[in-house]
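[09:14] KT: can someone run the structure on this one? pasting the chain below
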Amino acid sequence: MAQNYLTRILNARVYEIARETPLEYAPVLSRRFQNHVWLKREDLQPVFSFKCRGAYNKMVRLSRAALKRGVVASSAGNHAQGVALAAERLGARATIVMPRTTPQIKIDAVRALGAAIVLYGDNYDEAYTHARKLAARRRLAFVHPYDDPEVIAGQGTIGLEILKQHSGALDAIFVPVGGGGLIAGIAAYVKQIRPAVKIIGVEPEDADAMRRSLESGRRVKLDHAGIFADGVAVRQVGRETLRLCRRWVDRIVIVTNDEICAAMKDVFEDRRLVLEPAGALSVAGLKRYAAAAKWRGRNLVAVASGANVNFDRLRHVAERAEIGERREAVFAVTIPERPGALKRFCAILGGHNITEFNYRYADPRRAHIFVGIQVRDSLEIRRLARTLTRRGYQTIDMTDNELAKLHARYMVGGRAPNARDEILYRFEFPERPGALMNFLSQMGGRWNISLFHYRSHGGDFGRVLVGMQVPRGDMRAFGRFLDRVGYERVEETRNPAYRLFLS
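[09:31] RB: done, structure tokens below
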């Protein structure tokens, strides 16, 4: 089987549609991280991601009769564009099933390539199920985004190119992981040609299906996959991709969304290149792994897998990049409510620059302030927190508190002393018309909404904070409401950011 994949990759037909992308040295990243860093520029493909390789290699091998009937795929992004482009080149009709939450910019990009669009469901799983039904009903060939040997082989040509372009010493290749097709293909080639090269996968902390599957020895299905790096937001990896990864992948590294934002900024500062979150995932993993392993002078490749990013998402990325780099810390600090207290607090900060300050009068004795402070690294964050605590300030580090960073910082001072029985939830609303109305209709007017905050981040889902007044005797009925509405949620009633600034 191993020899079979080597043969498949060597004979893969991808260059009728894809280009051999450059392996570019990144001098700024290399100096900063004290290693030699190269970027494999898959963002330069015709559809701005590697997905066209696997899609074409699968479709070009279909029979003439199958191509005439057409193909179907399910995707909210890069795979859809890869299939649509391949179909256009092969003269086949492509039907792409996309979730109703798909941003219009992605729908338009796929439609511009001549594919028929079917909008179905609120997430990828629902779109996938419907695409499978269409394939059976209309006798269409289904093009899987990752769990198919020909798709895997097509993506594996990236590994072939890396070894051809970097003939010298190479220590590791960092690869973003969603369903596993990309890393399985790269590993299947590289490990058979140069087995000493480490293949290291990178996943977001809220979409780590491959890590969990490798640890358990079987495919694990996540209850929820985080949506920030939507290109890898997969709840369950493929059977074949897991088999290949168990054999050839050395390690999976987990990174935060803030670290992804920081990596996007790093790549921009080095190459003036704007990657999508999933496209910068490998760089985030490279940074974390190299630092933990104390690597110096190593030769490292990061696969820049795509650049399909919505412009309005960049606002959120810019806000979070400094935190991801640990160049900014966010604290909740309690200071006395008296003249001169703020001046004394700022004096204790010394030469630290304040990047954000939020405050509103609420109590005659003490003030809760939300403050962002410029720092150099994680060590300085801990040192600053200890200094403030020693000086008598109640200090809570909010740098990794999602409620604080997504919502509370924009709502400081919005207290409601009469909001009795208030409970707080973070929701992910599908980013489509009617999502809020569905939520309110399911609620049925039984409970009062006492707090609501939403801010667009250019994704398929909106991040919404909702406070509701629910008497203790209604909790069972309230639980049934949450199940009916079906939106992903996290209760935040005990979150210190809520208690200090909003409750």
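[09:33] KT: thanks! The first helix runs from residue 2 to 10.
[09:34] RB: yep, looked fine to me
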